[in-house]
Specification:
By secondary structure, the chain is α+β, with helices and mostly antiparallel strands. The protein has helices at 72-75, 88-101, 118-139, 165-171; strands at 18-22, 28-31, 57-61, 65-71, 105-111, 147-152, 173-179.
Length: 182
């Protein structure tokens, strides 16, 4: 019941901020972050999300961004920056999505866990992002129309606890994202 002179706010439609789907799995999960404004900062993930036990590829769609997160243990051998032949299938799915949306900018960010020195993680994460970019260039139809932002962040922006092997595994990742304008 409203008091005298009180009015209701105008109704509005709220966007679902994150839809998370393990690609290759039938399960999907919807969560909403505490920060309602989607950003394009590396390593951003819904709060409270638990590691999924080493999922190979995860796709997130927000009201303004589409992001694929690929575990580097799947893309690369341990401590390596060479893209494995087996990982090309996962990258082909990402390339198909990029071809479908035809974004003008694509971010490719590489990350490591906190094992080893930070200084050794920087070139490893940069080379993993760069080599992922090179494979995508081969797979994309119109790669020359896209501005790529390729960076390595070493152990910066962990999503999970680096004190457990499961958490470290989830932190070793490559994120590929682009704004959707939606």
């Amino acid at each position: 019941m409203l008091t005298d002179g009180a009015t209701l706010a105008e109704p509005r439609v709220l966007d679902v901020k994150f839809i998370i789907e393990d690609v290759g799995s039938e399960e999907s999960q919807e969560t909403s972050p505490s920060d309602p404004t989607p950003t394009e900062e590396p390593g951003q993930s819904p709060e409270g999300q638990e590691p999924n036990g080493g999922g190979e590829q995860r796709e997130e769609r927000t009201s303004g961004q589409r992001k694929f997160t690929l575990q580097t243990d799947v893309l690369f051998g341990r401590g390596s920056d060479e893209v494995s032949e087996a990982s090309r299938e996962a990258l082909a799915e990402v390339a198909a999505a990029i071809d479908e949306y035809q974004p003008s900018t694509v971010n490719i960010f590489g990350f490591t866990d906190d094992i080893g020195s930070y200084e050794s993680g920087v070139p490893l994460s940069e080379n993993r992002a760069r080599n992922t970019h090179l494979v995508l260039l081969e797979l994309l139809t119109n790669a020359d129309t896209i501005d790529f932002n390729v960076r390595g962040y070493s152990e910066d922006y962990p999503l999970y606890d680096n004190n457990t092997e499961e958490g470290r595994q989830q932190n070793r990742r490559v994120e590929i994202s682009w704004p959707t304008g939606e």
